[in-house]
């Protein structure tokens, strides 16, 4: 199935393939995103087990992938298993789709070092305050004044994130509604349409409930809602 995860006003969202798990090889799993024309694929196994893949390999977690899986699993409360942990999620039918939310897990946040900041910000081309937030894997959260105008050097950004062991860089602009863009060339996704786990990291860092718009630069408007109490999600619709 293809699920558009984290819609905004019934439009856009991140197309995500949701497949029943089977005896696929590693190379077969990595080939699935290209086959289905999506950045990520979620494999759903018995008892709510989830595995997430991009063309570069397996991820311990994927927020919009979890939203997509919950939309396929259907209404109600679900116990999910991914990345070595067990957590809760829920799906409720709403006008225009399914509202899916889940517990992203504990977030660890620390200040970025000067070397980390310089390496990523120089590739990003802009940046203010920076922190490293870990949820499954570490990523850098960078506050900027102009999200839409960012034009990263992806070669330099991949080199920086690879050398620092980072998943990617989540650049955000604060406001009543936040705006953000997630760049993750190290996992084969130059820019993510919607990144719920990084949004959960930002909510934990700020200690606030936030609504974040993403995907506009890619023509796929997406919205993610995250709480300081540790819930994140969005609206999803199964399209095929």
Automatic annotation (TrEMBL):
Coiled coil: none annotated. SUPFAM superfamilies: Diaminopimelate epimerase-like. GO terms for cellular component: cytoplasm. GO terms for molecular function: isomerase activity. PANTHER family: PHENAZINE BIOSYNTHESIS PROTEIN. This is Epimerase.
């Amino acid at each position: 199935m293809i699920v558009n995860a984290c819609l905004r006003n019934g439009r856009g969202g991140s197309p995500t393939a949701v497949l029943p798990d089977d005896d696929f090889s590693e190379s077969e799993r990595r080939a699935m995103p290209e086959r289905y024309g999506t950045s990520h694929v979620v494999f759903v196994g018995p008892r709510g087990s989830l595995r997430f893949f991009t063309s570069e390999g397996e991820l311990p977690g994927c927020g919009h992938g979890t939203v997509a899986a919950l939309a396929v699993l259907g209404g109600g409360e679900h116990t999910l298993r991914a990345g070595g942990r067990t957590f809760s999620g829920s799906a409720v039918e709403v006008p225009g789709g399914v509202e899916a939310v889940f517990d992203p897990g504990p977030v660890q946040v620390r200040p970025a070092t000067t070397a980390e900041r310089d390496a990523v910000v120089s590739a990003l081309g802009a940046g203010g305050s920076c922190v490293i937030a870990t949820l499954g894997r570490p990523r850098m959260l960078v506050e900027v004044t102009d999200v839409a105008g960012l034009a990263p050097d992806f070669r330099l950004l991949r080199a920086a994130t690879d050398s620092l062991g980072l998943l990617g860089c989540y650049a955000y602009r604060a406001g009543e509604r936040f705006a953000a863009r997630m760049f993750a060339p190290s996992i084969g996704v130059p820019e993510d349409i919607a990144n719920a786990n990084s949004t959960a990291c930002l909510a934990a860092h700020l200690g606030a409930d936030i609504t974040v718009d993403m995907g506009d630069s890619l023509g796929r408007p997406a919205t993610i809602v995250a709480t300081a109490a540790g819930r994140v999600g969005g609206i999803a619709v199964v399209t095929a």
